[in-house]
Specification:
Layout (H helix, E strand, L loop, with lengths): L1 E4 L5 E11 L6 E7 L7 H4 L2 E7 L1 E3 L8 E10 L4 E11 L7 E4 L2 E4 L5 E2 L2 E2 L2 E2 L16 E8 L11 E3 L2 E7 L4 E3 L3 E6 L5 E6 L5 H22 L6 E7 L7 E4 L2 E5 L8 H6 L16 H15 L19 H6 L1 H23 L1 H14 L7 H9 L7 H7 L2
Parallel strand pairs: 1-13, 18-19, 19-21
Antiparallel strand pairs: 1-2, 2-7, 3-6, 3-10, 4-7, 5-6, 8-9, 9-16, 11-12, 13-15, 14-15, 17-18, 20-21
The structure holds zinc ion.
Length: about 400
């Protein structure tokens, strides 16, 4: 991908090429692009525009203009590779959001078109429901040039060398543009942590987020497998509309105290939960959020005794379709109670066995996709105790 912007960094235009392999046993006649950046504006203003395709023919966008079927010029045989390319313009909407602009600062989270995921169930074209995340993407290699005036700082996923940004085995690519201040430190474990902040963020907030992230990226690396991306960018702002922190590969958006509570450790945990170990965030949001909260608790040394509330008639394992209609319960169940389940599982397995199980689970799904069934198998393989009763009392 090669994109260029104007002096303000609001709008980026260029060309994106997507290369993919048909891993199924049948010819592949089509792909779908996910234009997640259109989720909130739908088809009226479409801040993500794609035109001038080569390698395929686009259809009419669906799912609130977040899904675009592209009929391939020629079906791709099993095991073979093909590409499509297109012109791309992304324009940050005027709102302090993961894809938006606020003052002189512009944020491009979920702005870049990515391939939809296809598995045994077919193409996944789940909607953005306005809360949480609905993403589901394979890990992929990105090579990106972001051409911009020198007056703009442009933190991004990946690592930059000679104007080329590369990111290997990531599920998405995010960046920001604006007159950010920034600093750089290297964690004792060797991860370059770059912190970027807007003019209203205090030095104390910057230092606190940096300290948390440096400690967390090394701690989680020891627990779950070494952080593989080399660099981690923290982007701090005073306000976000609909979230307090948002994770992208090697790049997290954070609210800075005193404007909100820093979620630095939580968002760093997501580098493993959804980032390295992928999942369908729409079908199984607990597979990343409950694990991020549990990991944050472990980082703080908090074992949360007695936090499991008992059967309340609703399971934290519900999908985003359910939470869309129960938005006030989403945080309590998926984040808090799901993490409580993991703390209870740790009490049952023992801390040593739980740690070993999680390390093996991450290893077995490294850059891949996990499912609830896969996690339950991993847990069962770590104990002689039959977990049927445990799951019956903790999920439904
Ligand atoms: Zn989270």
């Amino acid at each position: 991908m090669q994109l260029a912007t104007d002096a303000a960094g609001v709008s980026w235009t260029g060309r994106e090429q997507v290369t993919f392999t048909n891993t199924s046993s049948a010819p592949l006649p089509e792909i779908y692009l996910r234009l997640w950046g259109n989720a909130w504006d739908g088809c009226t203003s479409s801040p993500v525009k794609v035109t001038h395709f080569s390698g395929g023919t686009p259809g009419t966008p669906t799912v609130a203009c977040t899904a675009l079927r592209v009929t391939l010029a020629k079906p791709v045989a099993p095991g073979k590779q093909s590409s499509v390319a297109f012109e791309l313009t992304v324009t940050a909407p005027s709102r302090a959001e993961k894809f938006g602009r606020s003052g002189a600062y512009n944020y491009f989270g979920n702005a870049l078109p990515v391939l939809a995921h296809r598995d045994a169930a077919g193409w996944h074209l789940e909607p953005d429901v306005g809360i949480g995340e609905s993403y589901y993407a394979a890990a992929a290699d990105f090579a990106v040039r972001l051409n911009h005036p020198a007056s703009l700082q442009v933190p991004a996923t990946g690592t930059q060398s000679g104007g080329l940004i590369t990111a290997k085995q990531v599920r998405d690519f995010a960046w920001a543009a604006g007159p950010f201040e920034h600093s750089e430190v290297t964690s004792p474990g060797g991860v370059k942590v770059r912190t970027w902040w807007t003019s209203v963020v205090t030095a104390g907030a910057v230092a606190a987020a940096r300290t948390d992230a440096v400690a967390a990226v090394d701690d989680f690396g020891r627990r779950f497998g070494t952080y593989p991306y080399g660099e981690l960018d923290l982007v701090l702002n005073d306000k976000w509309g609909a979230f307090s922190g948002m994770e992208y590969p090697g790049f997290v958006l954070l609210v800075a105290p005193p404007y909100g509570e820093s979620a630095a450790v939580h968002e760093v945990a997501h580098q493993w939960w959804y980032g390295i170990v992928g999942n369908n965030e729409y079908a199984d949001p607990w597979l990343d959020e409950s694990f991020a909260v549990y990991s944050t608790d472990r980082f703080a040394g908090d074992t949360k005794p007695g936090c499991w509330p008992g059967d309340l008639g609703t399971s934290f394992t519900n999908s985003m379709a359910f939470w869309k209609t129960h938005p006030n319960s989403y945080g309590t169940y998926v984040y808090t109670y799901g993490a409580c389940m993991l703390h209870d599982l740790e009490r049952l397995l023992g801390s040593t066995a739980m740690s070993a199980m999680l390390r093996t689970y991450v290893h077995d799904h490294w850059y891949g996709i996990s499912t609830p069934a896969a996690f339950k198998r991993a847990a069962q393989s770590a104990t002689a105790v039959d977990l049927t009763t445990f799951w019956a009392t903790h999920t439904r």
